[in-house]
Amino acid sequence: MQPVIAERRVALFGGAYSNWRALDAVLLDARRRGADAVAFLGDAGGFGAHPDRTIERLREAQLITVQGNYDDSVGNSREDCACGYTDPRDNRFAQISYDYTLANTSDESRRWLSGLSISRQVILGRHRIGLYHGSPRRTNEFLWESTTPLGFIRSLCLQEDVDLIACTHTGIPWERRLPDGKGLINVGAIGRPANDGRTSVWYTFLELQGDRVVTEFVPIEYDWRGLVEDMAAEGLPREFAETIATGWWTTCLEILPSRERFRGRF
Amino acid sequence: MPRLSLPFVWLDTLWIQVSGTLCNIACRHCLVSAGPKVDRHRMLSADEVVKLLDDCEGVREIWLTGGEPFLNPEILAILDACLERAAVGVLTNGMRIDEPMARALGARFREAAHNLEIRVSLDGPDAAANDAIRGRGAFLAAMGGISRLVTEGVEPIVAVTGLEPEKKVEEFHKMLRLMGVSRPRVKWIPPFKVGREVARGGGYAPFEGLNSAQVEEPEAPHRLQCGTSRTVTSQGVFPCPILIDEPSFLLGARVSETLVPHPVDHPACSTCWETGFSCSR
Question: What is the pLDDT of residues B213-243, one digit of tens each?
Fold first, then answer.
């Protein structure tokens, strides 16, 4: 697929996790800020309630889209989400979320999810930005800030022939840049808070300023109480709703490196 | 007949045997038969480690092991050189972590450019079970190390070798909470029938091992840790930390010359395959 050329501003978000309320708020904010292009880096469903409501909005919004591991699994009716967890408790919660999502995603939505690309590119000025879900290498690779060294980022940029790599999957936004401006930006997730004790969620704005691409991580407030009510009504685990209401992750924690784990409450 | 071999994907994980096979104890199940007088693989100096790191551009994580890494007098210099470049984990029995060392690790845990994990090996949640394998006094000494780490804000992961994790993991969690660990994390290691474990529980049967159909699966290099890692000792580069005493698995002298397909015809390879085990994750 051809790269998308953006004039000045690109908005990027990932991990919608069925949170259509946050998605509405992000799209509104991106438009208000004058984004030339908006990119979704994958994982439409999971975690929250009513996945089709999110998928319908993603389709209507005509975004640059990348397939996440969840989209591949749901789109192809696979057995599990292939999230990449290694702990039995994490996998148990992941399976509850996946079974609910699969059962509540229409055939039409599944077809759309299965047809998404695993990577895209955006050109911003002279900068080529590669868009991926987990990493350029694996859709479900976790790129945490504390375990993603600059030498590794340099190798990825070289292999992909890009200046910047944008990804999601972990749910926590961060960036690391090399002295020459190349680097990696994890755009965060809009489906659930970033384990920072805030109910807001994060998306990312890239803006061309002179010859540089400047990153801004944008917190977004939305009607999280409505989401909590929906999750309760759908019988989803109260641990998930607790995360939405407190901003602290309660499940799927064993995959976190210590540095990221001990910033959270659990 | 050519040996069964696995494609190499990329170098994510580097294992460095910083203390060689030297250890202050001699566990009955030790994969590399380490002990106080065992110097088949010698200690590495900080200079040697820096040279080695310069040959490993792009590596994501580095694990320091042995033997007992804290026997190496240059361990902090080694740790700093590694933490500058990548996330680092240290495999230890915890017995040599005194207050100054715990303080030094605490500072790095909080401030280093990359993540630091300390993984303490135990074989039981109490002295009776643990010391039967690790030697008298090992449990108490390890608890001392864990306690000093926790005081400095470093919560170690505990590594346990054995079967039936689902039955026993809660016992370890309970013990760790009593030690002040707020988020107990236990990594379960399947028994590999190599090293001193052969005398304790027996070796592999002749039929155990991988077959070509398994190795040819597209996911095989990701399922086996050696598809994305290398292990360095004073003798050279090996596919994984488990096979460092198998001369036919010595791949070369420098990491960069070993990033090619390598043999996976040791019966221990089937333990990784069947359990999905990785020494690092």
Answer: 999 999 999 999 999 999 999 999 999 999 9
% pLDDT > 70, chain B: 100
Nearest CA among A139, A75, A81, A82 for reference residue A113: A75
Cβ(B11)–Cβ(B229) below 8 Å: yes
CB contact under 8 A, A152 and B116: no
**Whether the predicted pLDDT of B124 surpasses 80:** yes
* Interface membership of A33 toward B (CB under 8 Å): no
pLDDT at A262: 95
Looking at the DSSP bridge assignments, the partners of residue A40 are: A13, A65
Please name the residues between 160 and 219 in chain A that touch chain B, using a CB distance below 8 Å.
none
pLDDT for A88-143, tens place per residue?
A: 888 999 999 999 999 999 999 999 999 999 999 999 999 999 999 999 999 999 99
Q: CB B60 to CB A148 under 8 A?
A: yes
3-state secondary structure of B56: coil
Give the integer Cα–Cα distance in Å for B118 and B102. Answer: 11
Chain A residues within an 8 Å CB radius of B159: none
- Using a CB-CB cut-off of 8 Å, the residues of chain A touching B155 are 258, 262
Of B115, B166, B183, the CB nearest to A147: B115
CB pairs under 8 A between A and B: 54
Of A146, A149, A266, the CB nearest to B85: A149
Predicted complex ipTM: 0.94
Kindly tell me if the per-residue pLDDT of B164 is higher than 90. Answer: no
- Domains of chain B as residue ranges with CATH: 10-205+227-264 (3.20.20.70)
Task: Enter the CATH code of domain A4-261.
Answer: 3.60.21.10
In the predicted structure, residue B208 carries a pLDDT above the cut 80: yes
Q: What is the pLDDT of residue B168?
A: 86
Q: Taking a C-beta distance cutoff of 8 angstroms, is the pair A38, A187 a contact?
A: no
Minimum Cα–Cα distance from B115: chain A residue: A146
Query: Of all residues in chain B, what percent carry a pLDDT higher than 90?
Result: 93
Question: Is the peptide bond preceding residue A45 cis, with omega within 30 degrees of 0?
Answer: no
Chain Cα centroid distance, residue B70: 13
